[in-house]
Write a structure and sequence with these properties.
151 residues; alpha+beta; TATA-Binding Protein; 6-stranded antiparallel β-sheet; 26% helix; globular
Length: 151
């Protein structure tokens, strides 16, 4: 009888993740973030996620900004989509602010502080660990989505 081989791939997201709590609509929050952070977040096609044990797909709004000077990419991903929630933990999180090619430690603190200063943001904080078990799969799917969306 032959043995089955199992391949386990460890995926580590390439993002710095900031959880944002705000009741604003996504386009309004982007406008305020653009003013506060002096960025130009632009809408991308919706991120469509296929949950593992559900047949219905869910779509989530995504905004993108790339800074050539800082060599960084910023994404604002809605946590509430057409059918449900992308990340159940932390509870009541509305948006994820994702940074690729993350800035230095002091810059991270300044970025989180600047996001907190947006008038309609109730809270924003750095998520040190990925909050949920299935979150790595979602972030992997998001990276695959970005490969197509940013071409």
């Amino acid at each position: 009888m032959s043995k089955k081989l199992k391949l386990d791939l460890e995926y580590t997201p390439d993002f710095l993740i900031i959880g944002v709590f705000s009741s604003l609509k996504d386009y309004r929050l982007c406008w305020l973030l653009n003013k506060q952070l002096k960025t130009d977040l632009r809408r991308l096609p919706d991120f469509v996620h296929h949950p593992a044990k559900q047949e219905a797909e869910e779509s989530f709004s995504v905004f993108h900004y790339e800074s050539e000077a800082l060599r960084a990419r910023y994404f604002l991903l809605s946590n509430r989509g057409s059918q449900g929630i992308l990340f159940p933990e932390p509870k009541n999180m509305d948006y994820l602010f994702l940074c690729r090619q993350s800035p230095a430690g002091s810059d991270i603190t300044k970025l989180v502080k600047s996001i907190r200063e947006v008038p309609a943001v109730q809270a924003a904080y750095l998520l040190d660990k990925i909050p949920h078990r299935t979150a790595k799969g979602v972030l992997y799917d998001f990276e695959m989505y970005l490969n197509d969306a940013l071409k």
